[in-house]
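Q: I'm writing up a methods section and want to include an example of the input and output format. Could you take the sequence below and give the corresponding predicted structure tokens, formatted cleanly so I can copy it straight into the document?
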Amino acid sequence: QVQLVESGGGLVQAGGSLRLSCAASGRALSTYTMGWFRQAPRKEREFVTSIMWGTGRTSYADSVKGRFTISRDNAKNTMYLQMNSLKPEDTAVYYCATQRLPGGQYDIWGQGTQVTVSS
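A: Here is the clean output for your methods example:
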């Protein structure tokens, strides 16, 4: 079974930057798309960004376009999220997840990492 482990969260002032990592371990990763999601207190989990593992094609939520950048290192089975110009409304627990088949569910999730942006 594949496990996903996020790291890189923390506390940052508004306007600052953080880089999150999501490392896959266990069985060899076979995935179609990997994504980042976030959940703020008292809110539903929302999509942030995703990357197709083979082609590198990316997709972003409107709220993070131009500020966040997703990337991956296939050799290391690791995905990254570079977050710049952070805003207090970006405060949330950030989760990475993998969609192993086209059109399938995101069915393997990491434990989450807290990102807090102070004003």
